[in-house]
Each structure stands twice: as structure tokens, then as C-alpha cells.
Hints:
The chain is an alpha+beta fold and 104 residues long. 36% of the residues lie in helices and 13% in strands. Helix 1 (2-11) crosses helix 2 (25-41). It starts with a helix and ends in a 6-residue tail after the last strand.
Amino acid sequence: DEVRGAASIMSGSVARAGVGDAPNAKLKRSVKASVAARNMAMLGGDIASGAVRKTVDEVRGGRKLRGECEDCGEKCFKMTLFKSIPLTVPGRVDQGRCLVCNAA
Length: 104
């Protein structure tokens, strides 16, 4: 049921805000849809693609190439064509170092 709901959110078939809705109803649905889509996208997509399973080293390598923490997948670097730029996200990442996995 939740998967079907997430699929309808991602496909855009979610009910739209109407005339009688509260002013922020459309914004709230939009925020919920983006959060649900992001959570579904991170739900093991890098661990299993179709019927082929990836090894731990392949998962870690893919995450490193995308600028993510190799252990948890948190985005730590903005990747450009020739360099990676360390990110800082309060409470999550400090200068490219994942605070989720490397708590000080």
C-alpha cells in the first residue's frame, strides 16, 4: 500500500489542491511528495539493481564516485568534472566528513 502510494506521488497522480483547501495544502503535499520520493529513491537502489546483487566494494565505490559517504550514503561532496567540493550540512556533514558515521 505504501509502495503504491509512493508510486502515485512520483508519477504525479496525487490529488491537487482545490478551491476549498487550506492555502498551504498544496505546499504541504508538495513537500511530502518530495520527501517520499527521496526516501524511495534511497531505498536500496545502490545495493540491488534488478536481480543482480552488488558486492560491498562495488557499493562503496559507486558511493565514492557520487560524492557520498561510503558507509551510509549521505552526500558529502559536490562532484564536478575535475574536482570534488566538500559540503557542510549542519548536524550531518562537516567539510566533507560524514558526522552520522564519524561522530566526534
